[in-house]
Amino acid sequence: MAQLPEGITELLHHEQLPVPLIKCHNVVILTATNVAELDLQWHCLIDSLKSNGDLVLMAPFVSKCLTTTLSDVEVAQPLSKLCLQFPDIYIGGYRGSRKGPLMIRFEGKDLSRIEAASQSLCQNFQPGAFSETE
Questions:
Q1: How far apart are CA 17 and CA 57, in angstroms?
Q2: Among 41, 76, 91, 130, which is most exposed with the fewest C-beta within 10 angstroms?
Q3: What is the mean pLDDT of residues 42-54?
Q4: Which one, of 34, 35, 28, lies nearest residue 13 by Cα?
Q5: Rounded Cα–Cα distance for residues 92 and 90 (Å)
Q6: InterPro entries, per this entry (predicted)?
Q7: What is the pTM of this model?
C-alpha cells in the first residue's frame, strides 16, 4: 500500500475499478501494470470527469492532405499567403522521402475552413496539380 500525503490527496472511485485512482492536486495517478488496465483506468477517468462536469469535450481536429509533384519553391509563396488568409488552420508541407511527392497537410477544427483553404491553394495552380490522399 502506498503512503499518500494527507489533505491534498483524493481517491477517485469508479464501479469498474478494483482500486481507486489517486488524485493529488491536479495530477491523477494511473496505477496500471499493463495496457489493458491502463485503457480501463483511462476510460473510467474520462467517464468520471464527464459525469462530474469537470471535462468539457471540444470539437476534434480534422485534417486533409494533398500531394503534388510541384517543387517546394513553386508552392512556398502560395502556402505563405494561405497561412495569412487562414490563421485558424495549421498548414504544413513535407516530403515523405527525398524523391517523393510534396505533401501539404491542413489541420484544424472546422472542416469547411480546411476545404476552403485547400480549394484556395488549388486555384493558384493548374487543375490536377494536387491530389487528395489519406
A1: 23
A2: 76
A3: 87
A4: 28
A5: 7
A6: CinA (IPR050101)
A7: 0.64
CA distance 121 to 123: 5
Amino acid 25: pLDDT: 85
Q: Stretch 19-46: mean pLDDT, rounded?
A: 90
Q: How many CB atoms lie within 10 A of CB 121?
A: 23
Question: b or e along 34-71 (b: 16 or more beta carbons within 10 Å of the residue's beta carbon)?
Answer: eeeeeebbeebbeebeeeeeeeeeeeeeeebbbbbebe
- List the chain domain ranges: 9-52, 62-133
CATH 3.40.50.300 assigned to domain 62-133? The reply is: no
Asked whether 44 and 14 are in contact (CB, 8 A), the reply is: yes
Task: Summarize pLDDT for 117-129 with one digit per residue, the tens.
Answer: 999 999 999 999 9
Longest dimension (CA), the chain: 68
